[in-house]
Amino acid sequence: MKDDQTPTGRRRLLRIAAALGATTTVGLFTVDRTDAPGPPTATAPAPPSPAPPPAPAAGAPASPRLAPTAYRLQPMTSYAPPRFRRALPPVRQRPFLRMAGAGNTMVLTFDDGPDPRYTPAILRTLRAHGVRAMFFVCGEMAAQHPDLVRRMADDGHVVGNHSWSHPLIPKLRPSRIREELSSTSAVIEQTTGSAPLWYRAPFGAWNRHSFEIGAELGMEPLAWTVDTLDWKEPGTGTIVRRVLDGAGPGVVVLSHDAGGDRSQSVAALRTYLPQLLDEGYHITVPRR
Ligand SMILES: [Zn+2]
């Protein structure tokens, strides 16, 4: 896939996103969802526009039993009882940028894959350290490499929707946005047995239609806090430094496992992941 970079305006988009949602957060751990909305997070942002968004319903604060020193690998929780049906999420006005209320927790995300040249090595490193991450896959890549998507899910990683062909969403008609997102959700569901619960717009370029369609498909929008800019191939050391400098509670890190030569991204993970763990961070995935 293409880099998460637009020829124009990405910096501006990010500034706008930061201004609108600098404190947008989502809880990491939830009790089993019912059709009732969850409690708003303590750090829910002030509404940026006259129409207030619904309170973020993606999660409750972390359970106190998941103290930062207790686990590196978050225990798997049980499946929701069958009597509870997962509610469609509300239509957001901006993506989540970070996670809330879970102590020294961080989330690693890898976009644009899977790519057989890089994804297996990333999966091996994550497995070696017993941590889970999020992979925002492109449908056309997932359809070519279903074995890798299955391996992500089998290892407990969250497989998210990153569109089918990595277009600039705001340039598409709503019908095309729907095709991009629904076809990708379908291939993920066919491959893993579960439809994705999260999506991320290519280039971080969202629009109202994408929020509406994503919600219809049962997905919450997740952006990121720290961009490693690994697609620019800045050198392994630079990627490592960006992650470690940006580390903090609730931080969501953006990297790539496809879209170009990602060997620096692969090597950097081997260095920064054990360092984050040594610093006491839990690397985990959001729960919905
Ligand atoms: Zn991307």
From TrEMBL:
Residues 104-284 form the NodB homology domain. Coiled coil: none annotated. Residues 29-65 are annotated as: Disordered. Gene3D superfamilies: Glycoside hydrolase/deacetylase. Its EC number is 3.-.-.-. The keyword Membrane applies. Residues 37-56 have a biased composition (Pro residues). GO terms for molecular function: hydrolase activity. Keywords: Hydrolase, Membrane, Metal-binding, Transmembrane, Transmembrane helix. The chain crosses the membrane at residues 12-31. Signal peptide: none annotated. It is an enzyme of class 3 (hydrolase). It holds the Pfam family Polysacc_deac_1. This is Polysaccharide deacetylase family protein.
